[in-house]
Amino acid sequence: MRSVYADLHVHIGRASGRPVKITASRSLTLANLLNETVLRKGLNIVGIVDAGTAPVLAELEKMVDQGQLEIHQRGGFMTAQGVMLLAGCEVETREGVHIIIYLPDLDSLHKYQKFMRSRVKNMELSTQRCKADIRELLNLSHVLGGVFCPAHAFTPHKGFYGMLASSFQSYLGRDASQIHVLELGLSADTDMADTINETRHFTFLSNSDAHSAGNVGREYNLLRLAELNFEEFRLAVYGHEGRRVLANYGMDPLMGKYHRSYCPQCDQIMQGEPPVVECPICGNDKLVMGVYDRIVQIQDHREPYHPVGRPPYRYRVPLTSMPGVGPTTYQKLIQYLGNEIEVMERASFDDIARVAGNNVAALVMQMRAGRIPITPGGGGVYGKIQVHNCNQ
Ligand SMILES: [Zn+2]
Ligand SMILES: [Zn+2]
């Protein structure tokens, strides 16, 4: 068994010479991602979520034909550097919720496309609204041998709990038992999610939802697998045969841009006792609901109640967002220590300090040990590290 780092929600900006995700960086191509970005980040598995679009699937096939990617017999695609590409498809359900279906191979991707062709307007673009509901897509995933994962489940923008229902049980009834995996999203963590009873049956994933190379790996997961392939990934997220998720790494929810409710009329992030559903200043009851406020609204108990074996959630601030890490220091860290995850998770205090100074090294150590002080975000603005309160 080995432990590997995985970020399973990355958007390709451009493929086969065409745009795939309008809001994603054009320079984030499959080739750039695999040959440069994932190596600099230190990821062993990268999941792209636009593999069901026509341009990305065409490019994927071309890379297989040209020998740049190798198909693994047990599913998944391997690069020459030993990184696994996991092919996923993010789609907006009829209800308006984002879900991801991870698929094993080209055949299942083609079948996915065939299903979608009559159900989405534009096969070129990622995360399109489709004419199929959550139940139909669960069924599709099952038939294709996929892994089904509600994406950024708590966000007010297209997250299941955030915008649709207070539980899968209440929405899907007995079919809720088909949900095994849940993506927490940038503004939620394990403690928050485990205040809801039904989540004890779900494996949590913490992924970046990156639309640019810089954001790849701002959240990631540590998985225990026998080797890199799709079947092992499935066993890990289902917690079968000793494979499992060992840890989630992500931004402190306080850093998330939808942590607290936000009043667009007053341009204010709400601070009162959650859930804040109405602005105390102007009385507006059409707030952008904060993830924290929403979770408090639908939770079953105030304190988290973790199931046995729930992996730890470790708070991370992306290296490039850390005070004291400018472009030059960043380049030096990568040059001397190899990649971002090496710096964040493994390098010694002395090695980091030698390149980036004592303050940066101390911050990394403080992060590995626990939480660093943050001023909360909301209404689309990220939270900030309180540098003056850190132990430097
Ligand atoms: Zn999404
Ligand atoms: Zn996405």
Keywords:
392 residues, alpha+beta, binds zinc ion
Outline:
This protein is of the alpha+beta class and 392 residues long. It contains 13 helices and 18 strands.
How would you describe this structure to a colleague?
It is a single chain. 50% of the residues are buried. It is globular and about 55 Å long. The model has no long low-confidence stretch (mean pLDDT 94). The two termini are 38 Å apart. The chain is α+β, with helices and mostly antiparallel strands and 392 residues long. The strands form five sheets. Strands 1, 4, 5, 6, 7, 8, 9, 12, 13 and 16 form a ten-stranded mixed beta sheet that branches. Strands 2-3 form a two-stranded antiparallel ribbon. It contains 13 helices and 18 strands. Helix 10 crosses helix 12. The chain has a domain of 192 residues: TIM Barrel (Alpha-Beta Barrel), CATH 3.20.20. It binds zinc ion (2 copies).
